[in-house]
Amino acid sequence: MQVDAVLVLFCVWLAGAAGKMVQSRGHKLETYKQSRLRRETRMDGGAGHKTGSPIYKRSPDMTKSLMTKSEQLLRIDDHDFTMRPAFGGPPIPVGVDVQVESLDTISEVDMDFTMTLYLRHYWKDERLAFPSTNNQSMTFDSRLVKKIWVPDMFFVHSKRSFIHDTTTDNVMLRVYPDGNVLYSLRVTVTAMCNMDLSRFPLDTQTCSLEIESYAYTDDDLMLYWKKGNESLNTDDRISLSQFLIQKFHTTTKLAFYSSTGWYNRLYIHFTLRRHIFFFLLQTYFPATLMVMLSWVSFWIDRRAVPARVPLGITTVLTMSTIITGVNASMPRVSYIKAVDIYLWVSFVFVFLSVIEYAAVNYLSTVQERKERKLRERLPCTCGIGNPDEMMIDPQITGYGSIDINTTGNYGMPENGGRQERMLAQVALNDPQIASQVKPSRGYVNIWIDTHAIDKYSRVVFPGAYILFNIIYWSIYS
User: Fold this and answer.
1) What pLDDT does residue 15 have?
2) pLDDT of residue 211
3) Pairing relation of β-strands 232-234 and 92-107?
4) CA-CA distance, 189 to 194, in Å (whole number)?
5) What is this structure's pTM?
6) 123, 167, 214, 446 — which has fewest CB within 10 A?
7) What is the mean pLDDT of residues 338-361?
């Protein structure tokens, strides 16, 4: 019993000792937390007093400040830059100059051109003046442009335009200590160009790029060329495949809108003369060769129908293809162009050469039919001993001499055909025989030299076409 009592007391003692250890440990943890909180509170509250300690104060991050030093120097927040400089006073003068970097395309179909240029504006804004000991300007990018006033220029009659942004926005802002501002940007613009194509491709075109303020009338903003005609500069390497750039020049005018008023407008004019050599090779030379090829049929025998007909049809179809190809690359204008005149006149010459052979073939057929009917009506010439002697006898024929080689040939046998035609002529000279034949104009004048039509065409067609070319090139050159 004594042993059991001793064991019970020992267990009670161990339990009491363990409880005291747990309470002591919890008190120590609570004390650590309280001490940490007191230390943090002391750091926050005493930061203003311990300025030299790097533990209690961080260096300020200038990249995260609301205003940079330059903006503080320019006093951006002290002014309202939604209003123009000297608002309520005289109009602010804004000078402009342009550096043309390239002329990219000229389109006759769309009636427009594409130009890349550097557009620079000059004005004075006293709100941006800042103190400077060395009179040195400050240059900024597009981020500051959004916070100050800049002229609201736009391109009149433009179809597309954009500011280049590779590798960053191609915008530059330069501010001088006295408040003068230079604002420059690189722009590509596609603008309308009203072209007169009545002399195409022997034409000269004048296109204009127009610059104007969108919101400010001439009472608020006076837009002008900073250095007159010298305000426009061009790159000497500018060239176009189809045009020769003759000159650039500038003008200034006033534009009136009935609802808003008068605005200053700046013009950039440039004159372009088209290169003709490309069109000579692609249009004029092929058309001329087709016309000359159609003349070959005048030297081909009129009886060779399979040779002359395909030649004429081929030249007509080729001219149609040339005309279609030229019109496919041109706008559908309502007036006649110079190239249309040349091509259609050439087409008419080719078509007339086909009509010429149709006339020759038809007259030859009619002539043979008449001779055949006349031979059927004439009395038999079997009793004539020598028809050749009678044909050259002046007492019978009534002619001093007859050249039997001038009568031509219609596809009949050489001797028989010639003798029968001459005998018909002799029979008509005999009163007794002529009384048996009905008087008819076609029978009296039965011989028409259809071969002469080809002979005349060999001279008339080339002569007329050469005359047309002389007149055409003297007018349009």
Assistant:
1) 67
2) 96
3) parallel
4) 16
5) 0.67
6) 167
7) 94
